[in-house]
Amino acid sequence: MSTFRKSQNSASPGKLSVILSTLIFVQILNVSIQIWLLYTALNNALDNNTEILIPAFIASVVLFFIGFGWLYYLPSGNFTRYK
Amino acid sequence: MKKEDNLKENWKKDFPYEKPQATQINRRDFAKFLTLVSGGLMVGSGLVAAKAYLLPKEEVQGEHYICKKNEVPVGGTRGFVLEGSTIPYILIHLENGEFRAYEQKCTHLSCSVFYKPGSGIIHCPCHEGSFDANTGEVLAGPPPRDLPRLEVIFKEEHVYVKAFIKVKEREV
């Protein structure tokens, strides 16, 4: 088995932390925008302005799939987790 | 068994977590949790849109008799509820002689609003929200929307209300 990953991880041990922090930062950003979109959609729905609701929903869906896609890059760790 | 040891054991039974486990429920799980929240917000936005299009808010149908003109003095108000509805409204006799009717629920958190005689302001005491009594527009405070309005019409000395048709600016 290749020792590439092992040597990479030992060469830059802070990498995992940076990747995870970036992922979480982007996800918090996405969720914040989604909260704002939901708030705006609710206000407009109650004010009978329906034209903004579909675009707000589509934007929310896009943000969710961006966040979901991010999970692909979620590192599994440098070592096997506890059993 | 000593008291301290006993407490220690009970504590372990109540919270059966090892320290490594507690520290491992960390950013990885948090990222997954954020995705779950994101999905929830997406569903929420979808529900808001679906509700608005599939089950739109019912407009007030027809004309409804409220009272006689002289029953509401200048600067006075009268609360009413339309037949078949539970939404409270207020009829206001403004100082300039005109009548206005608004939903009595503040658009912020649905507190009951009241008219301040002589000021031209409808006030919400909960969070100090203010609305223009002439138009229903928000003047101050946290309310995000104008007060929903009904149109007041007169038939001789009788006051009636009907749905208010908002003329959008771009259509003017």
In total, how many domains does the architecture of chain A comprise? 1
Q: Assembly type of the shown chains?
A: heterodimer
Q: Under CATH, the topology of the largest domain in chain B is which?
A: Rieske Iron-sulfur Protein
Largest sheet of chain A: none
| Major sheet of chain B | 6 strands, antiparallel
In order across it, which strands form the biggest sheet of chain B? Answer: 1-10-9-4-3-2
Proportion in β-strands of chain B: 25-35%
Tally of helical runs of chain A: 3
Radius of gyration computed on alpha carbons of chain A: 19 Å
Give the mean pLDDT of chain A. 85
Instruction: Work out the strand percent of chain A.
Output: under 5%
Number of strands of chain A: 0
Broad shape of chain A:
rod-shaped
Q: CATH homologous superfamily of the largest domain in chain B, by name?
A: Rieske [2Fe-2S] iron-sulphur domain
Q: If you compute it from the alpha carbons, what radius of gyration of chain B comes out, rounded to the nearest whole angstrom?
A: 27 Å
Tell me briefly what this model is.
Chain A is mainly α. Chain A has helices at residues 4-11, 15-46, 53-70. A 6-stranded antiparallel β-sheet of chain B has the order 1-10-9-4-3-2, with no helix packed on it. A 4-stranded antiparallel β-sheet of chain B has the order 5-6-7-8, with no helix packed on it.
